[in-house]
Design brief:
heterodimer; A: alpha/beta; Rossmann fold; four-stranded antiparallel beta sheet; globular; B: alpha+beta; membrane (chain B); transmembrane transporter activity (chain B); ABC transporter permease protein (chain B); transmembrane (chain B)
Chain lengths: 234, 404
């Protein structure tokens, strides 16, 4: 059983004074529980759009998509929101933490929308998660006072706090130096393994891409396996 | 339940996070709610005071004043009192009293004292509260020495703390035993109430002598028509029966309670309340506009935050309700503070003295209706003011908001 499956998915945007913009063309990909996937592509190749579709933030224009073998197109918006909240964790290049909140409050935020008993234990769970990513000493620090590496660790803790089955990381090391980026990726790998989540990383960095078992290249909206892409290039 | 509570907790945390902005934007709402509550409370108090005053001076609903007149000599007060009591017995009227106003001479009291000869029914008919001791009783007529009830203002002026000390009072040539202290009708009210029998045997002669020099007594008969009777018809029958015993005498029955003026247009207290409340609502509208203004600007700065929240599972509806609840929780607190300010001011010695100066003795409790109206208005303001920023927040596109 696949976790996420895209079949011949396209995404186009209708522009007012220009022909429709085709961002993704015939994308097919299958991600299973515990998979490690990397997607490499130039700026403007459609990486973020693909990530948004995988994360149920955006919808395909055509094609089929399923999550847990359930067709996503048939879901109501509310159910998609719930599924996203419970099953998907996002990590962004610019961290996207909420200014003014502490590290604990940022990590606890996704649990605010859980609607179950974890809501009442959100601060404890958040602190526990921050300990796991090595930030036990910065629990009550406002996120604006943390370094880039620490902020990305907070973002990782936030993406994991609801134990998602799919972690989507968009350039997770893009704003970090090489050493910090390396340690962040190691942490991401370890924690994803611990909770048995699939990890999809979008990156420019080949070193980061090489850590994944399944590697893809996205070029002008077309997704190909990395080896096939290399052969085509040679 | 958890979802509902989480919305409130989320809203509260947001307010805490943006406390300076919230505080600044809610000052106007607080003041407006305070003004609105105060005006409604004032209107309510005015109506209550008017009603109380009406009861104190006239009696409760369907109270009639019977006035004797005619070409011949006026009958003696004693005869009128006897006729009234007889008629009341005949028609089953429980509450009937003569009110003979006279000017007693009380050497111990430094100022003017009002005297009233009344039946025991006078006190319940005029909502007079006995603060100490008891009211007059029919058996008091059989006592040799007159007994009286005095007002609190008079007791204070004479240094009488309690009737338990069995105080007595020199009134004219007689010594009156004080058996009760009644609440003031106005500040420094100096009044003494005795039974008509005491008046006739001890004070009428002196009053008559004084009357020759311009003073004298005035007799009014009051009846409280039972609720199940036709008030006008019964009052006229009583008047006619009293007149029948005296040749050439006419006795008119006039309704004197607030119900008699029901057809003369709206109550002035209601008009005052409407005017004050309208001004307050205008202030509240301005407060709400400034709240919307600040909220809209703030929401535009928070678009990225909403995108992040959406990415982590917040539905559109949750964002909408969340932003609106921030406004509602804020204005609710502002409303509570506004109502609290008015309640504290209302109970302050300053306000008590202001109302006392205006002749209102014993302020009624702070009107709950005004407090509830203030809080409800603040919540409604919050809902209206929160609607626009909530719509803006929901319309933001998650994809654009979290663009990396």
């Amino acid at each position: 059983m696949s976790l996420v499956r895209l079949e011949d998915v396209t995404r186009q945007i209708v522009l007012r004074d220009a022909p429709p913009l085709q961002i993704l063309k015939g994308i097919s990909i299958e991600i299973e529980a515990g998979d490690r996937v990397s997607i490499v592509g130039r700026s403007g190749s459609g990486k973020s759009t693909l990530l948004n579709i995988l994360g149920l933030v955006d919808s395909p224009s055509t094609g089929r998509m399923s999550f847990d073998d359930r067709p996503v197109q048939l879901m109501r918006a509310k159910d998609r929101d719930r599924l996203r909240g419970s099953s998907v964790g996002f990590i962004f290049q610019q961290f996207n933490l909420i200014d003014g909140l502490t590290a604990t409050e940022n990590v606890a935020m996704p649990l605010t929308y859980s609607g179950d008993s974890t809501f009442w234990r959100r601060h404890d769970l958040a602190r526990e998660m921050l300990h796991r990513v090595g930030l036990g000493h910065r629990l009550d620090s406002p996120v604006s006072t943390l370094s880039g590496g620490e902020q990305q660790r907070v973002a990782i803790a936030r993406s994991l706090v609801r134990s998602p089955r799919l972690i989507l990381a968009d350039e997770p090391t893009g704003a970090l130096d090489i050493d910090t980026g390396e340690s962040v990726m190691r942490l991401l790998d370890e924690t994803a393994t611990e909770i048995g989540a699939a990890l999809v990383v979008i990156t420019h960095d080949q070193a980061v891409a090489q850590r994944a078992r399944s590697r893809y290249q996205l070029d002008a909206g077309v997704l190909t396996p990395a080896t096939a892409a290399a052969q085509a290039a040679s | 339940m958890t979802r509902l509570l989480s919305v409130f907790i989320d809203a509260w945390e947001q307010l805490r996070l943006q406390r300076v902005r919230v505080l600044m934007s809610l000052i106007g709402v607080t003041l407006a709610v305070a003004a609105l509550t105060a005006s409604l409370a004032l209107g309510n108090i005015m109506a209550k005071v008017q009603e109380d005053t009406s009861i104190r001076h006239a009696g409760p609903e369907a109270t009639y004043s019977l006035t004797a007149s005619g070409p011949g000599p006026q009958p003696a007060s004693e005869d009128l009192v006897a006729d009234l009591r007889e008629a009341a017995d005949r028609y089953g009227i429980t509450y009937a009293t003569p009110v003979i106003s006279f000017d007693p001479v009380v050497p111990q009291h430094p100022g003017y004292v009002s005297g009233y000869a009344v039946d025991p029914a006078f006190f319940p008919m005029h909502a007079r509260t006995i603060e100490d001791g008891r009211a007059l009783e029919p058996q008091d007529a059989e006592r040799l020495a007159p007994v009286g009830v005095i007002s609190r203002g008079m007791a204070d002026a004479l240094g009488i703390q309690s009737v338990a000390e069995h105080p007595t009072l020199q009134v004219g040539d007689s010594r009156v035993a004080v058996v009760g202290i009644v609440a003031n009708q106005w500040q420094d009210d100096a009044s003494i109430y005795v039974l008509p029998e005491s008046y006739f045997s001890h004070f009428e002669a002196a009053t008559a002598e004084e009357g020759e020099m311009g003073g004298g007594a005035y007799t009014e008969l009051k009846i409280w028509i039972p609720a199940d009777a036709d008030p006008d018809a019964l009052a006229k029958r009583v008047a006619s029966d009293i007149a029948a015993g005296h040749e050439g005498l006419r006795v008119s029955a006039d309704r004197i309670d607030a119900g008699a003026y029901a057809d003369f247009g709206p109550d002035p207290a209601v008009i005052t309340t409407i005017v004050l409340a309208s001004v307050s609502v205008a202030i509240l509208a301005l407060g709400a506009l400034s709240l919307i203004n600040i909220a809209v600007v703030t929401v535009r700065y928070r678009i990225r935050e909403f995108g992040i929240r959406r990415a982590f599972g917040a539905s559109q509806r949750r964002i909408f309700v969340g932003v609106m609840m921030e406004s509602v929780v804020g204005t609710f607190i502002a409303g509570l503070v506004g109502v609290g300010i008015v309640a504290v001011v209302y109970r302050s010695p300053w306000a008590q003295s202001m109302f006392g100066t205006a002749g209102i003795a014993g302020l009624p409790p702070f009107p709950v209706e005004a407090a509830v109206a203030g809080v409800v208005t603040s919540i409604v303001t919050g809902v209206i003011a929160g609607m626009i920023p909530a719509v803006i927040a929901v319309r933001s596109k998650v994809i654009d908001a979290i663009r990396f």
